[in-house]
Amino acid sequence: MANEILKDEILKDEQLDNVAGGTVREINKDWQFMTDLALMNPSDSKLDMDQMKRAFAQFGYTVIEHDNDNDANEYYFKGKQVNRVDVLRQIAKAKHVKDFDVNKYM
């Protein structure tokens, strides 16, 4: 019976991408991603969310952060919500960084 209940609760990968994570962890990983791609200055010791949002905006993405650790941040492209993994991959591709592993930023 437990398996029957759980089968209805399984989320698809696309659903998980939009709910897994948490603001603080994602913001820190996004910050590291942007500095590793030289889109932000790594010497900036203070995490500036506005600066990071501007870095994403250079590529047409909007980031909406949440103020708790339970809700994943939201990422939008042309008004449509997109998953974070695809956003990071597209930015790395746009920067022409070959074989860039976005998994370390998850």
Number of domains: 1
How many strands in all? 3
Largest β-sheet summary: 3 strands, antiparallel
The separation of the N and C termini measures: 34 Å
Mean pLDDT: 77
Strand content: 5-15%
Multimeric status of the protein: single chain
Biggest sheet: strand arrangement:
1-2-3
State the helical fraction. 40-55%
Mass-distribution shape: globular
Structural category is: mainly alpha
**SS element count, helices:** 5
Taking pLDDT < 50 over at least 5 consecutive residues as the criterion, the unreliable ranges are 1-21
Radius of gyration: 15 Å
Helix-strand topology string: HHHHEEEH
Q: How do the strands and helices of this protein lay out in sequence?
A:
Layout: H1 2-7, H2 13-19, H3 23-36, H4 49-57, E1 61-64, E2 74-77, E3 80-82, H5 84-94
Antiparallel strand pairs: 1-2, 2-3
Helix pairs in contact: 3-4
Short description, anyone?
The chain has 106 residues and is mainly alpha-helical. It has helices spanning 2-7, 13-19, 23-36, 49-57, 84-94; strands at residues 61-64, 74-77, 80-82.
